[in-house]
Amino acid sequence: TDVTDIQALIKKAETTHELSKSEIVTLLTDNQYVDEFFAAADRVRRKYVGDEVHLRGLIEFSNICKQNCLYCGLRRDNKKVDRYRLDTDTILDFAVKAKSYGYRTVVLQSGEDECFDVDTMVNIIKKIKELGLAITLSVGEKPREVYQAYREAGADRYLLRIETTDKGLYEKLDPGMSWDNRVRCLKDIKELGFELGTGCLVGIPGQTIESLADDILFFKKMDADMIGVGPFIPNPDTPLAAEIGGTFELSTKVMAMTRLLLPDINIPATTAMESLNPQGRVLALQRGANVVMPNVTEGEYRQMYLLYPGKICINDTPAHCRSCITGKIQGIGRKVSETHGFREKRA
Ligand code: SAM
Ligand code: SF4
Ligand code: FES
Hints:
By secondary structure, the protein is α/β, with parallel strands linked by helices. It has a single domain (3-335), classed as TIM Barrel, CATH 3.20.20.70. It is built from 14 helices and eight strands. The chain has helices at 3-16, 21-29, 34-49, 88-100, 118-129, 144-153, 167-173, 179-191, 209-221, 248-261, 271-276, 280-285, 301-304, 318-331, and strands at residues 52-62, 105-110, 134-138, 157-159, 195-202, 226-231, 291-292, 335-336. Strands 1, 2, 3, 4, 5, 6, 7 and 8 form an eight-stranded parallel beta sheet that branches. The chain is globular. S-adenosylmethionine binds next to loops.
């Protein structure tokens, strides 16, 4: 493909928000016009979702997991993690504090910990809703009835990354799990009226650029409301310890392409991006992102929720992160949103 073609492709993505798989591959592979590509994603972000950045306070309430995903530090066979689960009162206390920092959403994230049964979760959701906060759940694969109970209790959004749309690769990296069941979960979540968040890992062993293009087309097909893209960062205490991992650059390319093709959705500048690049979240916010998820987990638990090495903020307090991230956002001329930050569909 010659020079003008790349520029024409960027223009096509920016104006029509439709590209074929091979066009996506061409743009993800190009290294010459990356700055123009990122600038286009930034313009689309500004046009469709504006300059406000939505902050979601992240509570990592249990690092206990029955799954064994090869890439993840919380996998059940990793004996080197000190496991914890917060009790309901502690979770509610962190939610109250999140509200005091001005966050309008809390994200409740954990491993797949069976101890949090439906009744426990429903109780937590109802109590947090009484605070006037929006709730995002990220607690893994569940039967439809369980998602329905969460939804009826008041949960607003659900995050479940497809991780990769390459079914064979997914089932290799997530032993004992089924890709079809994950898609079933995503469809149930959408049908039940949650805002649907999904996303992928970039740089997992065996993944190709073609497969990343499929991921982006999958996000579009699912009409996802939020997409989280992050580099895979090898964890020394997992079977993928010796792998190379994803790059910051390619992760932000996949994220920027997602913004170009799904212009009005919410896209976080992910923690994993900043773990690879000290300016990672600010750069991501300038390449298509409009959401940040600062950690509001307190005390020693932060160090224990270690998905990958080098995770940022593990020695910082929620108050510090609040002022740190506000400074970064204002430093690039953007502002912190005071709304709940739901997706507003703009044609
Ligand atoms: N257990 C729930 C699930 O899997 O959906 C939620 C928690 S899980 C730790 C959240 C996300 O962490 C996963 O979707 C995965 O993409 C990401 N993750 C896990 N290990 C990672 C690694 N080594 N590098 C980067 N991201 C990782
Ligand atoms: Fe468990 Fe989620 Fe980690 Fe997989 S990615 S091991 S389900 S916490
Ligand atoms: Fe946690 Fe900057 S956001 S230290």
